[in-house]
């Protein structure tokens, strides 16, 4: 496998890119797009060295093109995470030493690039006008194969597809409609049509033939009508003079009147589950009765590791939860939960209960933006005191790290 594109491909990227970040990143984007369809790399160490050199040059080249330093750093991280994600999911990459010597672990001493990528995307999403170039680069990373944390877990592809669609609409709105004409300078020629002289005689002859056929049709139709009238008179003379009796049909029985079935009244739990049916099907949300309440559980809320601010990419999800809870009466309590793993390098006063309360506060603030009555909302953090799965497994701890939106349960209402 070649380690990079030839000069003609680089020049094509450079000329085609409207975005300076995409122009500078074109060799790395080209390489990442080819990894899934290429043969195994002969020398992994040489390949990694070449890629690291290209990544190291990327940030300085981007700032030389006038890109803000912060956006250049975010773009470099996104490129490293994308190449790591694609390489580790190839047959040859997973069997090499790349998992312990990937780009993210080498440059940033981290191993959670698959989650960090989406945290950075959420931060850029909060100010799309100032970060449009970086948003476009990360959209390209998603298009060429980056999946990250959505590669595992039920409903991951559906959530990722919805995120990509929202990102595309935002970029399209800020960039405006693209040029659809083949040539912006095209102008038609004002030249009236002049038929050939010989064609005039052809049309005259054709019109004459059609007129003759129409006249023949009228004459034949008149003659046929006269013969039909004579035949009808002879048939009428053959009819009998005696009266004809027709038996009256029996009167059908009157059916029983239709009594419509009145559908049973839907319950509060059924209404909320119906409103959130797509999210429940994808595994992002659970709606369950719990201790006299109805709990809407957000199972994969996007928080940075150890962080407390809910990513802006979760706004569409909370808008749909708010739409489901708006018609239902009663206060709404936002409850944060964690697993039982202590916070690393935290102060004595900062623990899982504090972390869960701050995350619940962030989720409550975002939910209030979409409710008709924001005053209904309160929040509380319960740390690891109310698990819904075993903390002995990764899957169990992932389910326990959740945010719940609780509302008092009603027995039944129309």
Care to describe what's here?
The chain is an alpha+beta fold and 414 residues long. The chain folds into two domains: 7-175, Type IV / VI secretion system, DotU (Serine Threonine Protein Phosphatase 5, Tetratricopeptide repeat), CATH 1.25.40.590; 268-408, OmpA-like domain (60s Ribosomal Protein L30, Chain: A). Helices cover 51% and strands 7% of the residues. It is built from 15 helices and five strands. It has helices at residues 7-16, 20-35, 44-64, 69-88, 91-94, 103-108, 113-125, 132-143, 156-175, 197-237, 268-275, 277-281, 315-325, 352-368, 394-400, and strands spanning 285-290, 293-298, 332-336, 377-381, 403-408. The chain has a five-stranded mixed beta sheet. The protein is flat and about 115 Å long. The two termini are 65 Å apart. Residues 2-9 have low confidence and may be disordered.
Query: Which structural class matches the secondary elements?
Result: alpha+beta
Q: Architecture of the largest domain, according to CATH?
A: Alpha Horseshoe
CATH topology of the largest domain: Serine Threonine Protein Phosphatase 5, Tetratricopeptide repeat
Largest sheet: 5 strands, mixed
Q: DSSP strand (E) fraction?
A: 5-15%
The strands making up the biggest β-sheet line up spatially as: 1-2-5-3-4
Name of the level-1 CATH class of the largest domain:
Mainly Alpha
What is the global morphology?
flat
Q: What portion of residues is helical?
A: 40-55%
Order of helices and strands: HHHHHHHHHHHHEEHEHEHE
* Number of structural domains: 2
